[in-house]
UniProtKB/TrEMBL annotation, chain A:
This is LYR motif containing 4. GO terms for cellular component: L-cysteine desulfurase complex; mitochondrion. Residues 35-91 form the Complex 1 LYR protein domain. One of its GO terms (biological process) is iron-sulfur cluster assembly. It comes from Cyprinus carpio carpio. Belongs to the complex I LYR family. It comes from the Eukaryota. Pfam families: Complex1_LYR (PF05347).
From TrEMBL, chain B:
It is an enzyme of class 2 (transferase). The lineage of its organism: Eukaryota, Metazoa, Chordata, Craniata, Vertebrata. Signal peptide: none annotated. The keyword Iron-sulfur applies. This is cysteine desulfurase. It comes from Cyprinus carpio carpio.
Length: 116, 478
């Protein structure tokens, strides 16, 4: 028998992005949840800036799959380690994106719209 | 076009008849007479879109994380790792040792067993020439296969000229070697057996673990008897295998396999292993050689100098490249399963889509014992070169980069018994970490379209459609 809070919850779940739905787990502490979500958003935002098609698609795919496979991690130590790894990867991506812009080449055949 | 195709086929079949037993080393290397530039090389125009890269067996793009690890050592930490007197040397040396550990962890070895070289070609040369020359007083025989990389075959040819006996084992039709035949070929004076783990042209995975291990049960009695007899000497005979029980060293060229399939040198009982940096998303110009310490392999060094790398390979170790290789190995270890899954899915998609769309396509090599990322397909009644020219939007190759300049079909395909005409029409698709589904779909679509178009123009295809058996035709000369 669904209660009103359940329907509000379902409404929230339907309206948030697919990724956020996976993170709004009730047993996660709210500060790490927002940390993780913001890290994910930043990683995706930076990965989209790669000028090379292959690197861009790989980074986006790997970030998504990486967060998805660590979805159910509860242990706070592992969580900390994963968050640190994500931060390091974010720094790597930022640097490599700027290098890619310095030495950019033409688009590949499969790229449909001009890259931003 | 038609005359050229026919005359090429005639030439090809004639060559097959006149030189059937040319030693494989010679035929593989003897490409100088047949060199001909068929696909003109040209620079891309300014706004021309770049072709898709589907040639991951030739080389791989560097992973951004690897470049990120290398750059500090190119810019600021530029010391020589062998300088012992200042901080530049010390920090460079510690980076080099860290990289050595990363490489060793990937293959399950000890860091002291890794020697940095300039690539898998140098590692192969060091292993074959080094082992053969060191033990040449008593051992004069080397065993290898017909499908090895050219550097191995050429080194063996040089060894033949120096007075060694080399046996080139044939492979079965699926590309794998016959273990019984290998056991029969090993003689008391064999010093080295060299078999590559994953072939670079057809992607076939040899049963390295079986070669190393399967004789343990048969020969363990011999091994323990020898321990008992030679109890005075401190020999670590923890494991024995065919090769070791007969004192034969086992070398494998794992350039295409490292970082793509799980490797453990102790499980596999290999004594020497060649690693190439630019095949696992690392920098070009670096590789490594694994040399077992227990029991110790001795090799005669190829490169003399200041005694770096334990005297086995003198010369300054290029720290940025070594750091890149180490980072690439660490990333490969973490991403091995993920990449393998991704590559398998894409490879299956490619093969199934092509085979569903057009008939008369043959997958070269064993369908199960293979690395999925290397797909070698033969399209019957189509010329390989013309298909490559038509597929100019996709970077592909037919056969390996070493043989692509010559007219002859690849010696690997000939060794697995492919017909001459199928061997001429083979294309190798390489799939790797960075390949996307869109790229595979584009490749499939273009490939199917071009094969259909080329077949329409081919007179052989017309004859097959009418039901004539090609093999029964008697070709006459005018």
């Amino acid at each position: 028998m669904p209660t009103s809070s359940d329907t509000r919850w379902q409404c929230f779940m339907r309206n948030s992005t697919q990724r956020e739905k996976n993170y709004t787990e009730l047993n996660m502490a709210s500060c790490s949840r927002t940390q993780v979500i913001s890290l994910y958003r930043m990683l995706v935002k930076e990965s989209k800036k790669f000028s090379s098609y292959n690197y861009r698609t790989y980074a986006l795919r790997r970030v998504k799959d990486g967060f998805r496979e660590n979805l159910h991690v509860d242990n706070p130590k592992t969580l900390d380690m994963l968050i640190n790894q994500a931060r390091e990867n974010l720094a790597v991506i930022k640097r490599q994106v700027s290098i890619g812009h310095l030495y950019s080449a033409q688009r590949t055949v499969v790229e449909k719209e001009p890259h931003l | 076009m038609m005359n050229r195709t026919l005359s090429r086929k005639l030439l090809g079949s004639m060559c097959g008849i006149s030189n059937p037993r040319l030693s494989f080393a010679q035929s593989a290397v003897n490409t100088v007479q047949r060199e001909k530039e068929l696909i003109k090389s040209r620079e891309l125009e300014k706004d021309e879109p770049r072709p898709l890269y589907m040639d991951f067996q030739a080389t791989t793009p560097m992973d951004p994380r690897v470049l990120d690890a290398m750059l500090p050592y190119q810019v600021n930490y530029y010391g020589n790792p062998h300088s012992r007197t200042h901080a530049y040397g010390w920090e460079s040396e510690s980076a080099m040792e860290k990289a050595r550990k990363q490489v060793a962890d990937l293959i399950g070895a000890d860091p002291r067993e890794i020697v940095f070289t300039s690539g898998a070609t140098e590692s192969n040369n060091m292993s074959i020439k080094g082992v053969a020359r060191f033990y040449k007083a008593k051992k004069k025989h080397i065993v290898t296969t017909q499908t090895e990389h050219k550097c191995v075959l050429d080194s063996c040819r040089i060894m033949e000229a120096e007075g060694f006996d080399v046996t080139y084992l044939p492979v079965k039709n699926n590309g794998l070697i016959d273990l019984k035949q290998l056991e029969e070929t090993i003689r008391p004076d064999t010093s080295l057996v060299s078999i590559m783990t994953v072939n670079n042209e057809i992607g076939v995975k040899q049963p390295i673990k079986e070669i190393g291990n399967s004789y343990y049960q048969h020969h363990s009695l011999n091994v323990y008897l020898r321990i008992f007899i030679s109890s005075i000497s401190i020999m670590f005979l923890i494991s024995g295998h065919l090769c070791r029980s007969k004192n034969v060293f086992f070398h494998t060229d794992a350039a295409q396999a490292v970082g793509k399939i799980p490797i453990n040198v102790n499980d596999w009982k290999v004594d020497l292993m060649s690693i190439s940096g630019h095949k696992l998303y690392g920098p070009k110009g670096i590789g490594a050689l694994y040399l077992r310490r227990r029991p110790r392999i001795r090799i005669e060094p190829l490169q003399s100098g200041g005694g770096q790398e334990r005297g086995l390979r003198s010369g300054t170790v290029p720290t940025p490249l070594a750091v890149g290789l180490g980072a690439a190995c660490e990333i490969a270890q973490q991403e091995l399963e993920y990449d393998h899954k991704h590559v398998t899915v894409l490879a299956n998609r490619l093969v199934q889509k092509i085979m569903a769309a057009i008939p008369d396509v043959v997958l070269n090599g064993d369908p199960d014992q293979r690395y999925p990322g290397c797909v070698n397909l033969s399209f019957a009644y189509v010329e390989g070169e013309s298909l490559l020219m038509a597929l100019k939007d996709v970077a592909l190759s037919s056969g390996s980069a070493c043989t692509s300049a010559s007219l002859e079909p690849s010696y690997v395909l000939r060794a697995i018994g492919t017909d001459e005409d199928l061997a001429h029409s083979s294309i190798r698709f390489g799939i790797g970490r960075f390949t996307t589904e869109d790229e595979v779909d584009y490749t499939v679509e273009k490939c199917v379209q071009q094969v259909k178009r080329l077949r329409e123009m081919s007179p052989l295809w017309e004859m097959v459609q009418e039901g004539i058996d090609i093999k029964s035709i008697k070709w006459t000369q005018h």
